[in-house]
Design a protein that fits this description.
Blueprint (H helix, E strand, L loop, with lengths): L1 H14 L11 H26 L4 E3 L12 E9 L1 H5 L6 E8 L2 E9 L4 E6 L3 E4 L2 E2 L12 E4 L8 H15 L4 E4 L3 H9 L5 E4 L7 H9 L3 E3 L13 E4 L1 H12 L2
Parallel strand pairs: 1-2, 8-9, 8-10
Antiparallel strand pairs: 2-3, 3-4, 4-5, 5-6, 6-7, 10-12, 11-12
Helix pairs in contact: 1-2, 5-6
Amino acid sequence: MELLDSTTEAVRQAALRVVQGTRPATEGELTAALQANDRAVADVLRPALTAALPGAGWTTDEHADGPMPAGDWWVIDPVGGNLNAVYGMPDWNIGVSLVRDGRPVLAVVHFPATGEMFTASAGGGTRLNGVPVMVSVKTDLAIALTGTGQAKPRRDPGHARRVGAAVAAMMQEALYVRASVPVSHQLAQVAAGRMDLHWQFDNLRSHIAPVLLAQEAGATVTDLDGRPWEIASTGYLAAAPGLHAAALAVLKGI
């Protein structure tokens, strides 16, 4: 509990360093603004989290994927939805997870624009501003609020076609499909029962914290073949238990 409290306070303080609404007009200005926000947040979080858990490893490469080394690792998504923050939109957050021997054990995701602080610990459930939350109890995909998003910038035509085909297929089965960033925003909404499912064809470091939020709130989270989600999975579906099988069947058809 003490470690979670320390992490939450560090994240809250780091969010105050994010510069919003600069609206850069060139690629160079945009890159500089994004990097400045990431550095500002990391400069607050690194000393605070190192003090909270001395000896733990540290990574801010939110676009990395694959297995992680043994031991304790802080995984930081400095500004999830950094583009949104830079252009003055509210859908951005600070995300932190603690991974122990390849498994997430703690997650904090803070949404400053709404004042929402999501926290989770392995086996301890998910809380929103200290109050337990649970995923949706829906069982009918036809009334499901679903979503996906662009996990990282890429120009691969095959990937774009696959994402587009999945969106089109889900639009025919679900009530609506939201395609937006950051991914962490949608997963938090799944955890809170506001959205019903989220799928992704990537599985990046920045997803670890919000996936744990969804899992601990009761979501069924698997890879796209239906196996239990792992940090090294290549993609995933996080869904209300009553919708997971139907949604997975849609995605398997892509």
